[in-house]
Write a structure and sequence with these properties.
Two copies of one chain form a homodimer.
Chain A lengths: L5 H12 L17 H16 L3 E4 L5 E4 L4 E7 L12 H17 L3 E6 L10 H7 L4 H5 L9 H6 L14 E9 L4 H5 L3 E7 L1 E10 L3 E2 L12 H14 L9 E3 L3 E4 L5 E2 L2 E10 L2 H22 L2 E4 L3 E3 L2 E2 L2 H14 L4 E6 L4 H5 L5 E6 L15 H20 L1
Parallel strand pairs in A: 3-4, 3-5, 5-17, 6-16
Antiparallel strand pairs in A: 1-2, 2-4, 6-15, 6-17, 7-12, 7-13, 7-14, 8-11, 9-12, 10-12
Cofactor (chains A, B): Mn(2+); Zn(2+)
Keywords (chains A, B): Hydrolase, Manganese, Metal-binding, Zinc
Subunit structure (chains A, B): Homodimer.
């Protein structure tokens, strides 16, 4: 086990929280490329340098602490949601800092990283996706935030401190620690989750079209009420998903819009979002078949027409089997019987980095499963347990 | 039968359409107190004066053509929806003009009227509700349109031509002709509908509240997804209404809003409109019981909490029985076997005027049931048949 220092680690977590500290509890407001985010990245660069790493900020704002030669890369991100918690992303970065520091003391090369814009001011996991080769810098530069600011304009703010991208070939693997953001570990009283993979996401908009009409004078049997399409569709998928989904499968309709949206008008158009996630690509496919058939059947049953938008599709990303095994052995050593294997329902930088090298993730519990909110928190004992599992696993990975 | 002149009547209908003529087909844009509306009212006042009536515009913009002594009042409104048809309201007003003109020729006292703001730029049937005593002028003056213009500011535009309100006591009854705005007469190939009553409306907003959460990390069995409340509620009322409603009963959810309304967030709140209409107050009550019970049951079934807004309630307004019988005899004389008795699913000025005097309505067919749209239309032969039925009935009413 690397000689990590829990007190130093917790002190750094609290120190980083001060950049953008806000709201009730331990809330933080530190979106990508804002003043608090850039200040936090300058501070982090100093910490990396102070423990003997080559400290560097790359063209998209990702902060690197590079060990010499081949090293294990450990980290996550320090940007937050517009109203975020103190641990989301930050925990993984400070784990990286502490492991790199302990590695330097023990003569084991560990590099650390804080990717930029994981939270998606401009895209989703933008910094790691550019580095991972999913998005060219030229294409990323055309992205805009909700205020119309371009990615090019935002990253120009750090141009004076930006160096080169590091070569991915110098890293032998990537290890990311993150809060679970869900309730499973907290409810079970467990300390850690070894992530088996990052689930795939499919997401589309569905539109049913009928006939807009007067809500007083149009008899029920002559209506082509577009809301009926949504109701019928939801009924059909609830029924047809039964024998297909597993406990970890999720599906969500988070947005609904009726047109024209008046109390006194039979809606002529209903548009809604349909998103589903699962770790198994075949299951995502099977759900897609059911969804498309249900849209067609719901339209036929209700006398409406239906269309779907282009579909966003991110495939599931399995975590490296060897690294999972090392994490599992470490978890069993540090917290015997108090850990599990589990998929990640949320997207993380590890999904980008896995395209370049073996990657793995460790989850720690989220109190009440809360995240992306000021109330987000984790017991400090669980934070330290997570650090110790990583320290065990990193030592084993480095020894191979 | 009063000696009405169909050619003169049709010519006036087309003439009035020129004020605000717009869009495809025979569309009109003439909302209350806009320039075209005021110009149309000035023109109408001249027509009333030209046939020997006392022509007057009252403080809220309603145009009156007053016969001497006790008279039958005939009319409707000439303001339109922001995008309206050429007949909605206008037909009843030009019927009033032609009947008053024919009455003057035959020595039978008929007064005519065009109420202002029936279409609800500021309220609903605002002009007739002020005259009917439902709303004080002071209260109406505080109403605003969607742009923030007050009723007081709008009616100040006609202050230079405004006289007094006429005394309701001078009218022996009110007769309103209107397009059906629904499909029943058109589909049956019938020429007229004798309106039995104007249906009551109840309207509320329902809100289900659950727990906003991450759409990737929150397992299905732990979600309190507010959309489920809407789905369950709609399922319950569809089932429970079966043995309560009749063919004319209608109910509508025309507006739905999920909060925060994002593809990736389990919605914590779902607000939607629920409106129902029927001519029978007891049925409206029974439906309300079912709706309130279904809201409670849906919340219990889905683990949500529910609340309802204040309810808008307009009771059904039965039309005068004697006037209905006179209209029925006239319809049978003019269009034997090609008419029916039917309720009005839409609100009309007659509902306000019925508080002051006996009131009755006649419907003519709407092609394909379309209204509140530029495509709204009625066959001219049906317009003339409607006028002739009114001319028959008005002669009988005046002879009593």
């Amino acid at each position: 086990m690397l000689p990590v220092n829990p007190d130093r680690f917790l002190a750094d977590l609290h120190r980083l929280r001060e950049f953008g500290a806000a709201g009730v509890g331990r809330g933080v407001v530190r979106p990508a490329f804002t003043d608090p985010d850039i200040a936090a990245r300058r501070w982090l660069r100093e910490q990396f340098a102070a423990c003997g790493l080559e400290a560097r900020i790359d063209p998209v704002g990702t902060v690197w602490g590079l060990a010499e030669g081949q090293s294990l890369l450990v980290g996550s991100h320090t940007d937050t949601q517009p109203e975020g918690g103190w641990l989301d992303g930050t925990l993984g970065v400070i784990c990286g800092l502490e492991l790199a520091r302990a590695g330097a003391e023990a003569g084991i090369p560990i590099s650390a990283v804080s990717f930029e814009d994981e939270e998606g001011r401009f895209g989703v996991t933008t910094g790691s996706r550019v580095w991972g080769g999913f998005t060219s810098l030229a294409a990323a530069d055309r992205l805009t935030d909700t205020q119309g600011v371009t990615y090019a304009e935002a990253r120009a703010r750090i141009a004076d401190i930006a160096g080169e991208f590091p070569d991915p070939g110098r890293f032998r693997g990537f290890l990311e620690c993150h809060i679970e953001q869900g309730p499973w570990l907290d409810q079970a009283g467990e300390a850690a989750g070894v992530v088996t993979g990052i689930v795939g996401i499919r997401d589309m908009r569905v539109t049913f079209t009928g006939e807009q009409n007067h809500a007083g004078t149009t008899p029920m049997h002559l209506r082509r009420d577009a809301l009926k399409g949504l109701l019928r569709f939801q009924h059909l998928i609830a029924d047809r998903f039964r024998n297909v989904v597993v406990g970890e499968t999720v599906w969500t309709t988070g947005h609904v819009e009726l047109h024209p949206g008046s109390h006194s008008i039979v809606p002529g158009r209903c548009t809604f979002s349909m998103q589903w996630r699962d770790g198994d690509k075949q299951r995502l496919d099977r759900m897609e078949e059911i969804i498309r058939q249900a849209i067609e059947d719901a339209a036929a049953d209700t006398g409406l027409t239906a269309e779907t938008s282009d579909m966003l599709g991110l495939d599931p990303v399995p975590m490296d089997e060897g690294m999972q095994q090392a994490l599992a052995r470490a978890a069993q050593a540090v917290a015997p019987g108090r850990w599990r294997r589990m998929p990640s329902g949320a997207l993380h930088d590890a999904a980008s980095v896995a395209a370049l090298m073996p990657a793995a993730m460790l989850f720690v519990p989220s109190i009440n499963g809360i995240s992306h909110a000021f109330e987000e928190d984790t017991d400090e004992a669980d934070l330290v347990t997570g650090l110790q599992i990583l320290a065990h696993a990193a030592a084993e990975m480095a020894a191979r």
